[in-house]
Predict the structure of GTPase HflX.
Amino acid sequence: MDLQVTLTPVVTIGLNRNTSSFEYSMTELNNLAEANNMKVVETLVQKLDRPDPATYFGKGKIEELTQVVIDDGVDTIVVNDELSPSQIRNIEKNTHSRIIDRTGLILEIFANRAQSREAKLQVELAKLKYQLPRLHTSASQRLDQQTGTSSGAGGATNRGAGESQYELNRRTLEKRITHVNQELKETAKADQTKRKQRDRSEMPTVALVGYTNAGKSTVMNGMINLYGENEDKQVMVKNMLFATLDTSVRKLTLPDQKRFLLSDTVGFVSQLPHQLVQAFKSTLSEAANADLLIQVVDYSDPHRELMMKTTEDTLSEIGVNGVPMIVALNKADKMEVAFPSREGDNLIMSAMDEKSLQELTTMIKEKIFKNYHRLTLLIPFSDGDVVSYLNENTNIETTDYRDDGTVITAELNDVDAKRFEKYLLTTE
Ligand SMILES: Nc1nc2c(ncn2[C@@H]2O[C@H](COP(=O)(O)OP(=O)(O)OP(=O)(O)O)[C@@H](O)[C@H]2O)c(=O)[nH]1
Ligand SMILES: [Mg+2]
């Protein structure tokens, strides 16, 4: 199926402001372009402290870019920063090319990957907000064409059509924003109900977070394999950026009957457009409500430190602070290191290795099942439902039968311990 896709040839450009992460951010831009069915023909870089307010690159460099575009026979330029509407228009005019900035690029990828209604609405909202101030640019028009969710008002086609047309388009976009916001609110309400139901089940929740392509979904599937229910579906794993855009939650049951919920969600990337972060807040709030985060890191990537910093910055941007975290240094099988190997809250591991997943589970257990009590209860035969509940929900160590009922020694969490207090066996 993928073989049919024709790749759009592009030139990528970026400003080197002398930061240590520049080279990495250009590599990432090129990866993002590839994830968006583009073929990077050439990359042009200029050293400048700040972008030219009119044209991003300086005058001479723009001339060079114009020549490169002609020589390479390319008509699309991908820029490593978010541009102002006038910068987009000026580069367009000078180079006779279509411009897609970093934000537009990520928006396109998200729009093409979104599956669920909620994800689609979230992406559309982010897209509309991006388009609103850029109505008369090729960046906005391209976004409509590429994502096939035309608001009917994004295009540069109206250039010169006069102020009234512009006003009309702007109003159409604004109306659509209000509408999408409303629809999102409704889905969010439904989500909250779901979450409330889950909360009532008193199960601890663990969220996988981290950079895109780090292996979060692979860890999720490994855990489902080991501890999921038979009918549990696996989640999608793919070697591409932003394979996952929706949140999946699965209930896992460990051999000692302890249960928790594990969630897999959208990955992060540096300079994730703020429109997207805002739009995806509710999807990402799964992490905010978690009792424990597992940050999955591609340990084999030389840029892993920057990726971890990006993850931590994004988490604080969406308001996730102070949730305990385990760092899963994944893909160790690609390196010459021993694994699984644990140091404090860090685990060098491979999501494809059962031993690693078991070690990760041990670490999860230590964090979320702290408040357990080993209790011995005497349950009268008339309360058989309590015995069934304990059998299904707790780790039972011993069961004995006496004339006056069943004696069970089990590990109970705080809530259950309180609930079944009255059955506590008092030694005569
Ligand atoms: N060698 C190796 N490859 C892995 C490991 N874990 C994941 N991968 C591969 O890495 C790629 C990305 O894995 P995913 O699980 O989809 O990554 P993700 O973090 O869910 O990515 P997004 O959903 O895009 O954010 C896939 O090709 C996986 O097969 C690992 O431990 N070792
Ligand atoms: Mg994934």
User: Anything to note?
Assistant: Confidence is low (pLDDT under 50) at residues 150-160. The chain has four domains: 2-113, 114-190, 201-368, 372-423.
